[in-house]
Write a structure and sequence with these properties.
This protein is mainly alpha-helical. The protein has helices spanning about 50-55, 60-70, 90-105, 130-145, 150-155, 160-165; strands at about 70-75, 110-115, 145-150. β2 (about 110-115), α4 and β3 form a beta-alpha-beta unit.
């Protein structure tokens, strides 16, 4: 961590390419923060089409999350898993809960908010495992004492995405 005192309008970061390194330089991201400012500092992990298994297999996700010392972690997963038939709720719940429990050990006092996927279409219809995913996420939130946001219900429930598209609310 580098702390800069004073007001700056620019910052240049350079890598000495003439110097030999014993290992490759890896830059995973930068966070420019104003220590005098109040409010929300937002970090995002993952990309669209992420699965829970992507986070569980990500080499640096856990350590980088702990290093951020967050007050709140929001998990918005399940949309892609909902597109699979025969979704294994017990195995998914067990892995999800283990991730939360591990983060709680390293981040005492951190709060969690679990959201359901929004109402989506998969190949022109509702994903086959959407309802089991939503029920599973609600059970996980209850079991782990996490906040829960049923995004699909907030949107208007099943098939509400059609209303959103027709009224251009999804942009």
């Amino acid at each position: 961590m580098f702390l800069l005192d004073g007001d700056y309008t620019s910052l240049a970061i350079r890598v000495d390419t003439q110097r030999s390194f014993t290992s490759p330089l890896r830059l995973y991201g930068l966070s420019f923060e104003n220590s005098n400012a109040r409010g929300i500092l937002f970090h995002m992990a993952g990309v669209g089409a992420c699965l829970l298994s992507d986070f569980l297999g990500a080499t640096h996700f856990y350590n980088q999350t702990v290093a951020l010392q967050p007050d709140l972690i929001i998990f918005s997963l399940g949309a892609n898993e909902s597109c699979t038939r025969g979704f294994a709720t017990l195995g998914y719940a067990s892995k999800y809960q283990r991730l939360i429990q591990d983060l709680k050990v390293s981040l005492p006092g951190v709060q969690f908010l679990i959201t359901t996927p929004p109402d989506i279409l998969f190949r022109g219809t509702r994903p086959p495992s959407m309802d089991p995913i939503c029920r599973t996420l609600e059970r996980i939130a209850y079991a782990e004492n996490c906040g829960f946001w049923h995004l699909q219900k907030v949107m208007g429930g099943a098939w509400s995405n059609q209303y959103w598209f027709q009224n251009k609310l999804n942009n």
